[in-house]
Amino acid sequence: SFTDSPVTLKILQNWVPRVSHYFDKEHYTYVGHQIVIQESIEHFGAVVWPGALALSQYLESNQEQFNLKDKKVLEIGAGTGLVSIVACILGAYVTATDLPEVLENLSFNISRNTQNMNTHKPEVRKLVWGEGLNENFPVSTYHFDFILATDVVYHHTALDPLLATMEYFCKPGTVLLWANKFRFSTDYEFLEKLCNIFNTTILAEFPESNVKLLKATVREN
Fold first, then answer.
1. Four-residue CA torsion sign, 66, 83, 139, 202
2. 114 neighbors 88 (Cβ within 8 angstroms)
3. For residue 5, what pLDDT is reported?
4. What InterPro entries would the database entry show (predicted)?
């Protein structure tokens, strides 16, 4: 059910590694801005994964196709916040969400990298996949133009709640952009489920890093 063949890309090494004996700060450059990310080894969500680099790079290079200016953007599983920061630089109203234990580092990175910019102030919110969606993000108030998700699918048990969360936020007119490193059979099984629910296209593949970038939209009857 895939249409155009995906573009094949490399993840560009557009960050400046810091010589350091422990996880310190990584410096990236996207959309003409230097972004400094503090990582943490305590949490999965606090490391920059390849999917985040792939999506950041893609958004930077395809601003006409995916114009984020003044659009409402939700990132689920925002992790270190890199993708949300890039979306913010591109002019979006960003809501970055993740698990409670990741929020402190996420908020720190987002506020540090966006505070002096003339952009919409991003919001950081707790979102546990599949839990309290109606209460915390009522449909009457929250409508997003874009849902961004990177490396949210790996060897974990929350895949069904993740899919339910994507379904909840993906309304007619919403575009879901999901970039993921494909390592396990569960990754492909999740992709299959996604294709059963949404109109799904592979936009880009990054073969060296096993990352695929997909676009999904609601099937309108």
1. positive
2. yes
3. 76
4. Methyltransf_16, SAM-dependent_MTases_sf
